[in-house]
Structure formats: structure tokens, C-alpha cells
Amino acid sequence: MDQIAHTADTDIATFKKMAQDYKVLIDADITDYSKRIQKETLQEYGINARTEIDAFLSVLERGGKRIRGSLVMLGYEMSGGTDKAMILQAARAVEMMHAYILIIDDIQDHSNTRRGGPAAHALLANYHREHELAGDSPHFGLSIALNAALSGVHAAQALLTELDVDDNLRLQVVNIINRTMLTTAHGQTNDIFNEVVAEVSAEDIERVLEWKTAHYTFLNPLRVGMVLAGADSVATEAITEYAMHAGKAFQITDDIMGIFGNEFESGKSPMDDIREGKRTVLTLHALQHATNGNKNFMIQMLGNTQLTPAEFQRCKDILIETGALEYAREQAIAHIEKAVQSLNREIDWSESGMQFLRGLAQYLVQRQS
Q1: DSSP string covering 97-140
Q2: What is the pLDDT of residues 258-302, one digit of tens each?
Q3: Which spans in the chain are helix H?
Q4: What own/partner pairs with CB < 8 Å and gap ≥ 24 does 102-105 have?
Q5: What pTM did the predictor assign?
């Protein structure tokens, strides 16, 4: 047991070191890109377009852990890739697509904060008010934020089409990303439907975990990096089981942190998920195991935009008392164990890459505790 714990600690340390190194590279690259695109936008399209693109770049530059961009670079390097400039451009494009997703997600979820700052639509509504423009500030904010998201995602697509790789590899990557974005859109749609229909099953939630998170956050960036390194279908298929389980664990721990963490950790208010009526492994288990009084209270609070701190605290108490918090943690750990086990394959991946993937999975255990 001591040897297993030591190996896990070593893998986590490797993951943290490599992830930080990737983040530094990606952050610096995005900073350089942002300065360039701000100048070009102002020169070509004027101050209004610059205001729009500044909102997109504000979300993009706030960063976070850069896990998706890091997985692009990891997948490439563990598969033998060596062109650092090219893969950094691919990582930037994937991070830009993530910023696009976040802007849309914040609009759909009525979230006014993101990564410790205002969401894009809130930022632009504030701009409208501060400059005393005509019309409705919230509508202006939503309208320009949507344009900012569209500008950002298409700029990312342009970066992908300009990657300095073989035409066939470039086409494969664009195809992978477009198919992933379709899956993600359908996952988000199902997530929203889960908030408004009368009955939600475990299978409904499982589909969202897979379609909205596992494909998008884990499988897509890993496959993009691997394909750009010339990896064959055997290798990309081999990583799928890891990505599915790690992705589900990631989302479950994200849902736990979303309610039981703080705004600094999650990047949004801990009350948001209850206000939105988000149906998760946590809330489903609570509804299935709560007393009639607590169940009725939870149903009333899920989607209550006027949720008070006292009501939110009672929701948290119910999640603990029904065993929902512990159950969600157990489900995350089960997925993590399956993810790690899936890496025991005869595939020619670098040892540092394997340590990163094992360490990332193990880190999710710490993240949710």
C-alpha cells in the first residue's frame, strides 16, 4: 500500500509540474496573441469591434488551469511530436474555443461572473451603462457577447486551418473538433432540458457527463494532439476509455466544488447551480433519498433565481444528510480508478505522458475532498 501511495504521489507531482509548465507557455502565447489581435481589430474594424473582441479576450486571458490546452500538448508530445510552435498554436485554438463555450454557457445559465471577473455579457452591459449609450444595457451586453463568442470561435477555426502540418492531419483535426462541438452542443441541450422537465433519470445525467464534458474536456484535446503527432487510430481509440472516465470524474468533482467550494475555486458563485436548477449526480441522489419535506424543499429551490443564503445552506445540509455528497465522491473515485486502469495497455506512449494522465486522474480525488 505504501508503494502504491508513493507512486500516486509521484504521478500527481509530475502532473502538477508538467501542467504548470504547459500553463505558463499557453498563457504567454495567449498574451502575445491578444495584443496582436487587439491591434489588428482596431486598425481594420474600428473601436466598436475592438470593444467586442476585448470582451472575448478578457474571458480568454483569465485562464484557469488551461487543462484543455495542456492535454493538446500532452497528447502530441506523448505520441512523439516535437514541433512546439505548431502545437502551441493548436492549444491556443482549443483554449479559444473554450472561451467561446464559456461565454455562451454564462448567458444560458444567467451567470454574471466567470473566473473571478464579470462574464462577457455582464462586462459589456457595464460598458453600455458607463458610456451612457441608448437602449437596453442587458440586451446590448447579450448581443455583443454573442458576437464576441462567434468571432472567437471562428478565429480559432482559422488558426487550426493554418497549422503547419500535413494537409491530411489538419483535416482530421478540424473534423475531430467539429464533431466534438456538435456532441457538446447536444450535451448542453440535454443539460438544459434536465433543468426543466419533471423527471430526470440517472441515465439522463450520465449522458450529459459524457456528451458535455468527457468528449469535450478530455477526449477532444488528447485526440487533437495525438493526431497532429501522426498517431494512428489504434492509439486514439486506446485513449478513449481513459478520457470517458476521467471526464465524468472531472464533471462530478466540478459539481461538488460548484456547491461546496468557494467562488475563487470554481470561478462562479456557489449558489449558481441551485439557482439554475442544475440536475447532477448530487441533486438526483438527494431527491431520491430525502424525506418528503426535504424533497419538496429541494424541488422548490432548484431553479429558484431568488435563492437566499439561508435556503442555499439548507440545500447543502440536505445534500450531506441524504448521503448525496458522499455518493458523488464515491462515483468520482470509481471513474478515476477505471481511468487509471485503462492506461495499462501496450501502446508506445512516453512514460512522462503516462505519469501526467495517472497524476491528473489521482489529482481529481484531492480536488473533490
Answers
A1: HHHHHHHHHHHHTT--EETTEE-HHHHHHHHHHHTT-SS-HHHH
A2: 899 876 555 567 888 899 899 999 999 999 999 999 999 999 999
A3: 2-45, 47-62, 67-78, 84-108, 120-130, 137-161, 167-196, 202-208, 220-228, 233-238, 240-260, 263-266, 272-276, 281-289, 292-301, 309-321, 324-341, 351-367
A4: 102/59, 103/55, 103/56, 103/59, 103/145, 103/146, 103/148, 103/149, 103/152, 104/146, 104/149, 105/188
A5: 0.91
pLDDT of residue 111: 87
d(CA 284, CA 270) in angstroms, rounded, equals: 18
293-326 pLDDT per residue, tens: 999 999 999 999 899 999 999 999 999 999 999 9
Q: Is it the case that residue 206 has pLDDT exceeding 80?
A: yes
Cβ 114 vs Cβ 62: under 8 Å: yes
- Give Cα separations from 253 to 175, 210, 261, 268, 272 (angstroms): 30, 14, 10, 15, 16
Helices (H), 229-262: 233-238, 240-260
Q: What are phi and psi of 113, to 5 degrees?
A: -125, 150
Whole-angstrom distance, CA of residue 22 vs CA of residue 180? 23
* H or E element at residue 81: none
